[in-house]
Amino acid sequence: MAIRVLMEPDLRAQFKSQCALQQTSMNEVVTMLIERWLKEQQGGK
Hints:
Number of helices: 2
Shape: globular
Structural class: mainly alpha
Largest sheet: none
Distance between the termini: 25 Å
Low-confidence stretches: none
């Protein structure tokens, strides 16, 4: 399954660079952020 995210090229470049510095993939970070957001929406359950 895939999600396509549209963003400004500069924002994407910064995101990609930071992921590389952290030795993680953009996919892993986006997945983590979505999971965190869902947890917050469910009241931290």
